[in-house]
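for the record, two folds in this file. i put them one after another cuz i was lazy. first one right below, seq on top, structure tokens after. the second one comes after a little note so u can tell where it starts
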Amino acid sequence: MELLFLGTGSGVPSKGRNVSAVALQLLEERGATWLFDCGEATQHQILHTSIRPRRIERIFISHLHGDHIFGLPGLLGSRSFQGGETPLVVYGPAGIRTFIDTALTISGTRLKYDLYIEEFTEGVIFEDEQFVVTAKLLDHGLPSYGFRIVEKDLPGTLLVDRLLALGVRSGPIYQKIKRGETVVLEDGTVIDGREFVAQPKKGRIVAIMGDTRYCEASIELAKRADVLVHEATFSAEEAHLAHDYYHSTTWQAAEVAKRAGVKQLILTHISSRYQGEMCERLVEEAKTIFPNVALAFDFSSFPVLKKSAE
């Protein structure tokens, strides 16, 4: 599991930062990529990475401002031209279906894969045997949502050394034991599989916020997350601008991280007014409130490490 930032700027692209898009790489977990927001030229940014558009399985749109959605039509079309044939699901607030349908229809774009569009409000918007994704409304000029991505607990590892000590050799019986079943060996010994499996590993939690002012919903979504991705459009001293434009400052993002008890905070959606050493100051501001802070740049990557068994 890895976060790869494709665009980290706010509003309009600049020479150093494209507009919003971040990929959650789940190659080991499910051979797929999930995309969160898709600003203009996201497909161009992808060309500079190892991401394969045909492996993009789901796209989650936080809100309908152009710097978060204008890259969608191009990416959807290119995925088809580049051999993408597997289904793709796009999740977004009310209106995302009209935007996509209109863009594809007017441009005569025909996709070679099945495209599903799901408009959501608050609550669980996706769940399978591996992950649960929850959305919650934030505080922005348009309805903007944050996402909580929870990996379900992973089964504990099989305690092979203990089995070998009992003379139990590798084979189909290992699968039964790993499932916690009771098995009878050839010599009549009864083994309770639950005693030969380590404790389950806690799943990882990633929280990704859309554009927002400081709000309680962000804190709720980020509770005990391994990684929180939060916008920091403005520096701490420009809180008045953040409020007027429905955005957050470095201090506010750090306060969310502190109150939520996250492990790491990654700042993104940075105004183009902050360049060079000014970017370092943004990090230092946030660190006065929360210690483990990183500033995302385009093509920055951050692994989300697995947890050890408890």
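(here's the note) second protein begins now
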Amino acid sequence: MRHEYYQYTKEELLSNPKISLSCLPDNESVFRQMANQMIEEIEKNNRAEKKTVFICPVGPVGQYPYFVDMVNERGLSLKNVWFINMDEYLDDQKQWVPIDHPLSFRGFMERTVYSKIYEELLMPKRQRVFPDPNDVGYIPRLIEELGGVDIAFGGIGINGHVAFNEADPSLTNEEFLNQKTRVLAITPETRTANAIGDFNGALEDMPHYCISIGMYEISHARKIRLGCFRNWHRAVVRRASYGEPTSAFPVTLLQGHPDLTLTFTDFVANLE
């Protein structure tokens, strides 16, 4: 069966989608927009003396250098900000990969974000959160205690996953959306795509397991902001925007969210 939406031109893609779409000229524009969204939310909440709670990805990552620069240049306090990272790779014993592993998301955030922000502006360590395979209930409890998530940022995987919520057509849509933080196996499709994109094609050494926040936590965020910029995202954004909601392509289950925007580059919008 062939799906017409995969062949949609840029104009057709943007004409009548099921979700809010934003097309920007290039990768830099997408990443700068995401960084600005982070800064604006923090500044708004700081003025109101409120917490800011983000679900944060390591993929996309291009927003973080801009974010760090703006925080330092503006002297923006992160003392009342919580970064809840959405996932992390696990070893074969289903424990975090070492922080110095080249694929470690914890290591990436430390090297690229936390160590670059002026110490007097940085949030305490307890507010830099990763899902823990030894306490999968912690993040759902924490989010409830904090009063919810302001913005969930993220990308979309080749099989439609958001965070590492891998496609599972054996579940109903409702069952899939009700999944919370958990340990799970990474599908062959995701391992292959991530090996190509992040590990020089070293599929043999890609982790087989991960821990991920669930679609429940993501779908209950007040805002969701997703970014796409790779060549295979051309198909992903078209199915996300026009496909039927299905646990076989999880991002489609977010079509009913009241404040979701998918941003992508002109390269992704055009098929040539």
